Amino acid sequence: MATRSGWHEPTARIPLRWGSYRVRYPGALALILAGALVLQAGSAYADYLIVLGVGAHIAGWLILPARGARRAAVAVPSALLVGSLLIGSMAAVLLVGPFAFWLLLRQRPGRSYLATLLPLASGLILAQLYPQYGDGAIVVAVSLLVIVASAWIARSLARPRALRPERSQGG
C-alpha cells in the first residue's frame, strides 16, 4: 500500500495465494489483538477463553500477509509469550517477543528494531509498578498502547530517508 510519500509497505507487494492485502491485513491484525485480549480474560474457571484466544491469535499470524515460513514460525511462540501474561505483570517484558515477530513479518529494516526498547522498558516498569495479579488489566492496556505506539515508531524508522535538497551557497 502506497502512502502519500510514495513509500510502499514491503509486504503489500507479496503475491498472495488467496485473498487480498486490504482484507487479510486488517483481519489478521484484529485476530492477533483480539486473540491476545481474549486469552488474557481466561483462567482456570474460563479455560475456553484461553483456547479461543490462542486459536484466534495463531489464526491471525497465519493469515497476515507475509512470507509463509515466517508466519508459521512465529504463530505458536507468540501465543505462548502472550499467554505468559497469565502469570502476572512480571511477564509483561516478554511482549517484546511478539512485537519483534511483528517487525520481522512486516519486513522492517534493522533500524526499526530500536522500537523494541519501548515495550521492553515498559514491561520492566509495569512489573515494578503493578506487581499484584489483580492489576493485570492495567498492565495489558498499557502494554497494548506502548506496542501500538512502538509499531508506528518502527514504521516511521523503516521509511527511507528523503534526500535533502542541496543548499546553494549564495554569493
Describe the structure.
The chain has 171 residues and is mainly alpha-helical. The protein has one domain. It is built from 6 helices and no strands. Helix 2 packs antiparallel against helix 3. It is globular. The termini are far apart. The N terminus is likely disordered.
Shape call: globular
Number of domains: 1
Approximate strand percentage: under 5%
Topology as H/E string?
HHHHHH
Architecture blueprint of SSEs:
Layout (H helix, E strand, L loop, with lengths): L20 H20 L6 H17 L4 H16 L12 H10 L11 H13 L6 H23 L13
Helix pairs in contact: 1-2, 2-3, 3-4, 5-6
Brief descriptors of the model:
171 residues; 0% strand; mainly alpha; disordered N terminus; globular; 58% helix; 6 helices
Give a brief outline of the structure.
The protein has 171 residues and is mostly helical. It contains six helices and no strands.
